[in-house]
Structure formats: C-alpha cells, structure tokens
Amino acid sequence: MKRLSCIILCAVVTSIFLSCCNSDSKQTSERHYTLASLKGPSAIGMLPLIDSLDGTQAQTLSITISPEPLLVRKMMLDGSADFAVLPMTMAALLYNKGLDYQLIAVPIWGSFTLCSNDDNIKDWNDLKGRRVHLMAKGMTPDVLFRYLLKENGLTPYEDVELDYRFPNHIDLANAVLAGRTELAVLSEPYLSLAILKNNNIKRIFKLGDKWTEINHIPIAETALLCKKEILENDPEFVDNIIRLYSQSTEWVNNNNEEAAALAVKHDIIPDSIAAKNSIPHSNLKVKKSKDVKDIVKQYLNVFFEMDPQIIGDKMPDEEFYQ
Q1: How many CB atoms lie within 10 A of CB 183?
Q2: Which residues make Cβ contacts (< 8 Å) with residue 281, sequence separation at least 6?
Q3: Residues 204 and 138 grouped into a single domain
Q4: Do 14 and 102 belong together in one domain?
Q5: Residue 321 class from Cβ within 10 Å (0-12 exposed, 13-18 middle, 19+ buried)?
Q6: Within 13 Å and on the Cβ side, how many CA atoms surround 272?
Q7: Could you tell me the pTM of the whole model?
Q8: Could you report the per-residue pLDDT of 155-170, keeping only the tens digit for each?
Q9: I want to staple 110 with a disulfide (CB 3.0 to 4.6 A). Which of 55, 205, 219, 310 is the partner?
C-alpha cells in the first residue's frame, strides 16, 4: 500500500508537469525550470518529486542536488537556478545584496543537533570549559549555537571553545565518526549516519528545540526561493512546485522506509538505515511563506542582532516574502 501511494504521488507529479508543458501559456511551454537543492533534509523531503522526474523526457523541471549551500548560491548568482533551497540566513543575505529571488516557502524546521561521545554531557552547564566543533564560522549552525550559549548564561569563546577546523558537513561528520571530536553540532542525515557507524555518539539536544524553548516559535531554518520574474509570469507553476514539495514531504514523513530507499537510489545518503533514522529528526514540513512570515522575521532578527553582516546588514523588506 505504501509503495502504491508513492506510485500514485509520482503519477500526480508527472501529470502536473505534462499539463504545464501542454498548457496554452507560451511562457510555460518554452521555459525549462531548474530547482537547486541541498544534499540533506531538503533533498530528502522532495524524494518522490526527484524520483518522478528521474529518466523522464519532460522539459519543464530539473532538480540539481549540491553538497553545500555555497554551490546553490553560485547557481543563483549566475542565474541558472530558478528555484533554490538554502539556509534562511543566506537567502536573506542574497536578497539584501540585490538578487531577485523571493521566499515562497519554508521546508525545514530544525535539523541541527549537539552530539557527543561523552555520556557526562547532559545540559548547557556541562559545556563550560569544553570544546565544541562547528562548521564554518558565521554560518547558520555557528551563529545559532552562539545565540543559544548566550541565552543559557555561557559566553562563546570564553566559557566554551568553538572550533571551526572542519568546514563542511562531510568533514565534520567524518571527524565525529573517527572520534576526533568530543562535541559537535551536526545536521541530519549526517548525524544519523555517524551514530549508525559509531554507537558511542549520542544526541545531547536539538538546537531547534532549545530555540523554541526560548522564543516559543519553531525555527525557520531553511528557505525555498523563486525568481521574482517566475512569480510574476508563471504563478500557477510556482504554486504547483510548493504543493508537490509539500506532498512529497508528507509522504516521506509517513513512509520512512520507502523514502530511505529513494535516498540511497538518488545518492543523498549511502545507507538506508541511516536515512530512515534521520527523517524523524529532520523536521520536514513545507509551509508557504505568507503563512509563517512573522516566524521568519523573528528568526532573522535574532541573527541580525547577533551579527548584522550575516544577513546583509539589514532585515529583508516586505518584498522578500511572497
């Protein structure tokens, strides 16, 4: 029955894109769209959508999967990405620098977790005098973790040493797996893969949960962006993208094992068990930007107050929110 539900969803996806190709809209029929996503929860949430396009001859949409946000940013800068999934802070930064992309949805609501191979780490006070490894300085997990340290009475770099020697998800995950770090902030599915291979690694707490305890709202971690011209000229296609991403994510949440098989098939993660284990920890849910605008504003304001340069020295104006 679950496999049948995926087949039905893929059939719906295909029919929608075929109808777009055959529509009377000259703009739609002549245009090929590219969606640039990240190799992680963002891609896992759209696995049925990715699978439905695999091997098809449809000229309406293609999806590219990149291992790091900087590669998605590059596609936005050169204009090759019509739609893009990347961290919310980077989305705001690029918008404030003049790129004509607008926020159309939020698909990920907290995928970062503090992990450790030390069973004595239970809460924030246990971090005092310890070293925590994070990805590149100034990126989302770094700023978010520093914010949470301060909110819990700890001074970054004084009470807790922050180490950035492993600059990306894969390098940091490999270091955690090899026991080269005692404490690290990792995202899914890399953390689930590390735990599967080394059962000494434990989840201490999810950063998104700690954010919610302080701010009483969920954490709007990731952005789905669209070129402004497409929103203006082909709004029906944009609505279809949001709807299909949402339906794909819902199917993934309800069919973890089948989704895990697709994650391996499409080279998102090499192990189906780790993929399956990561899904409940990834907080996948697609919400339209207009429905969560205030939540996004509050999230970005925290980063703006921590370091304005992270989002381009100002809060995005109302045009950012579609």
Answers
A1: 22
A2: 111, 113, 188, 191, 192, 203, 206
A3: yes
A4: yes
A5: middle
A6: 10
A7: 0.91
A8: 999 999 999 999 988 8
A9: 219
Q: Which of 91, 96, 36, 86 is nearest to 61 (CA)?
A: 36
**In angstroms, rounded to a whole number, what is the distance separating the alpha carbons of residues 277 and 303?**
30
Would you state the structure tokens that stand for residue 164, as one six-digit string? 């950035």
Q: What are phi and psi of 2, to 5 degrees?
A: -65, -40
Distance CA 116, CA 135 (A): 15
Half-sphere exposure of 85 (CA within 13 A, CB side): 28
Locate 204 and state its tokens: 């201490």
CATH of the domain at 48: 3.40.190.10
Q: How many domains does the chain have?
A: 2
What does the pLDDT look like over 81-134, one tens digit per residue? 999 999 999 999 999 999 999 999 999 999 999 999 998 998 999 999 999 999
User: Which distant-in-sequence residues (6+ apart) come within 8 Å of 218 by Cβ?
Assistant: 109, 110, 208, 212, 283, 295
Q: State the Cα–Cα distance between residues 135 and 164, nearest whole angstrom.
A: 6
The residue whose two tokens read 């800068």 is 77
Angle between helices 2-21 and 235-254 (to 10 degrees): 170
Domain limits for position 15: 2-110+219-320
* Half-sphere exposure at residue 87, Cβ-oriented, CA atoms within 13 angstroms: 24
